[in-house]
Specification:
Blueprint: E1 2-9, E2 12-20, H1 24-135, H2 139-170, E3 177-180, H3 181-191, H4 193-198, E4 202-206, E5 212-215, H5 217-233, E6 240-248, E7 251-258, H6 265-270, H7 291-301, E8 306-309, E9 317-324
Parallel strand pairs: 4-6
Antiparallel strand pairs: 1-2, 3-5, 6-7, 7-9, 8-9
Helix pairs in contact: 1-2, 2-7, 5-7
Length: about 325
């Protein structure tokens, strides 16, 4: 900055005195001060904005916390309702299970009693009808008596099958032992030899000597008897039935194959149902439609599976079932 003052001489301005000052430092300080003030103002505004944002954030967090608390309350309430519902369902399931068990027990008792009640009148009929046939000389009477005998045999067979099915349902656990499969198959074939010869059916066995299964020996015999009877029933005279087995890991897959009438896809699904007959047109006094149902019940009691395969009508059928593999001499 620059300042000038006059100097008077005899009452008149004689000269001037000038003073020059360097104020650049002061200006610099003033500029810095202004900048600092502006920076403080900006910082203040930023702080105010941050505070506003923080208030908004706090409000949102508070709202979220309240929503979470409400959700937790609803979840807790839902949890209590589910626990109560689950207890109620468990109670109903238990009651229903007990009710079903009682009904099944009554059913088994009824079937068992019915079977014995039906067998009682059948016994004298089974004995007396052949005698009546021998005593009569009338051919027409003999023919009618034959019809009666066939029907009595059918009812007797039906009662036997129903009782077998009832016993299977009642059995909770088979009497498992290690069974040599080939030996058991040979015994079954021997016991059915007359039936096989009568129908001119050959049996081919494809079972190795060392194949052992874990099974109830009597129940296994029932399965083979039913499968062989079924195969003979639907096979042409002079054909061959094949019985085989193969080890598959911890299981043995067993099969009975025939060259009979075969099965459709629908029949394969229904063939194990109670009283189902693949060929309803056959007038068979010995078929009850329960043999394969009995097989399924026995195999499933052993923890195995049973199923049928066929390429179609007229192409034969193969019935497979699985049993757990056993050990020789154990």
């Amino acid at each position: 900055s620059y300042s000038c003052s006059p100097i008077l001489e005899n009452g008149k301005i004689g000269t001037f005195i000038g003073i020059a000052r360097d104020i650049s430092k002061r200006k610099e300080i003033e500029q810095r001060l202004v900048e600092n003030v502006n920076e403080l103002k900006r910082a203040e505004r930023a702080s105010l904005n941050i505070m506003e944002d923080l208030r908004d954030t706090v409000d949102r967090l508070e709202k979220a916390r309240n929503e979470i608390m409400e959700k937790n309350r609803q979840l807790e309430e839902t949890k209590k309702q589910l626990i109560a519902l689950n207890r109620n369902l468990e109670k109903k399931v238990k009651e229903r299970t007990e009710e079903i068990e009682k009904l099944l027990k009554k059913k088994e008792e009824l079937i068992h009693q019915l079977g014995h009640d039906l067998k009682t009148p059948l016994t004298p009929l089974n004995t007396l009808l052949p005698l009546a046939k021998d005593l009569t000389k009338n051919p027409k009477a003999k023919e009618l008596i034959d019809v009666c005998i066939k029907n009595v045999d059918y009812i007797k067979n039906l009662v036997t099958r129903i009782l077998q099915l009832s016993r299977i349902d009642a059995i909770t656990k088979p009497e498992i032992e290690n069974v040599n499969l080939l030996e058991e198959v040979k015994k079954v074939i021997d016991s059915n030899s007359h039936y096989l010869e009568m129908n001119n059916i050959n049996v081919e066995v494809m079972v190795d000597e060392d194949v052992v299964v874990k099974a109830d020996r009597l129940r296994l015999k029932e399965v083979f008897n039913n499968l062989i009877t079924n195969a003979v029933k639907y096979s042409p005279n002079g054909s061959t039935i094949t019985i085989g087995a193969e080890k598959q890991g911890k299981e043995v897959k067993i099969f009975v194959r025939d060259t009979g009438i075969g099965l459709t896809e629908e029949q394969k699904e229904k063939v194990f149902d109670e009283f189902y007959k693949a060929d309803e047109s056959r007038q068979d006094f010995y078929s009850t439609g329960l043999g394969l149902t009995i097989c399924r019940g026995i195999v499933e009691k052993h923890g195995g599976k049973i199923w049928a395969e066929s390429e179609g009508l007229g192409k034969g059928s193969t019935f497979y079932f699985t049993l757990k593999s056993g050990r020789r001499g154990k």
